[in-house]
Amino acid sequence: MTRRRLKELVFLLVGISTPVGILAVNASAFVMRHVTEFRVTIAACALVSGFCLNGLGAYLLVGRAATHTPRIYHEYRAWTIGVAVIAVIAWSAFGAYGTYWSMQDPRQLPNVAAVLTAVWLLLFPFFGIAASRYRDFRERRRRRRSDRREPLPNS
After folding, report:
1. pLDDT at site 128
2. What confidence score (pLDDT) does residue 152 get?
3. CA distances from 81 to 15, 55, 111, 138 (A)
4. Per-run averaged pLDDT (10 residues), the chain, 155 residues
5. Which end of the chain has less Cβ packing within 10 Å, N or C?
6. Interior/surface letters 1-23, b for 16+ CB within 10 angstroms, e for the rest
7. What local confidence, expressed as pLDDT, does residue 155 receive?
8. Longest Cα–Cα distance in the chain
9. Would you say 43 and 99 are in contact if contact means Cβ atoms under 8 Å apart?
10. Residue 101 CA to chain centroid, in angstroms?
11. Can the peptide bond before residue 110 be classed as cis, meaning omega within 30 degrees of 0?
């Protein structure tokens, strides 16, 4: 990126930040003023978000199980997928209920229940993805070590 393009990008970002901020503050104020009407919508969004994030985490974990323990996975495939589906639905439903419940009184926002619900919704996918990535990291490191130990073939 050239120096001129970088300057243009900085000016663009600085110029856009204020109008976007004004729109965000006004939208937030509108939602806060009508939070009781928005509770169902926000809870439904939390449910959909939970399905997406938790589904991604579960998908990665199930894929990891299929890769690393193929015989056990194929023997218990239906059970594994069933447990993953139930966990995603339960985790997401609890998050949506927590979101709905925590927004009862707009005068009490922000509150600990809303923050803990948001953290709850992020825990499962975050740990699932982190565990999957950590497992990949350990496997690559193990392969590198074993590659270094192998003797070179004689030519």
Report:
1. 72
2. 58
3. 49, 11, 35, 25
4. 86 87 87 84 90 86 84 91 93 89 80 80 77 77 75 60
5. C
6. eeeeeeeeeeeeeeeeeeeeeee
7. 52
8. 79
9. yes
10. 22
11. yes
Which residue type does 51 have? Answer: F
Residues, the chain, total? 155
* Spatial CA neighbour of 104 closest among 36, 2, 8: 36
Alpha carbons within 13 angstroms on the beta-carbon side of residue 97 total 6
Residue 112 CA to residue 91 CA, distance in Å, equals 19
Structure tokens that stand for 98 in this block: 């927590």
User: Rounded to two decimals, what is the model's pTM?
Assistant: 0.64
**Start-to-end Cα distance in the chain:** 47
Task: Return all residues near 62 (Cβ < 8 A) that are at least 6 apart.
Answer: 80, 81, 84
Amino acid letter, 26: N
Distance CA 124, CA 87 (A): 9
Each as own residue / partner, the long-range contacts of residues 29-34 (CB below 8 Å, 24 or more positions apart, any chain) are: 32/106, 32/109, 33/106
**CA proximity to 100, closest of 60, 143, 47, 142:** 47
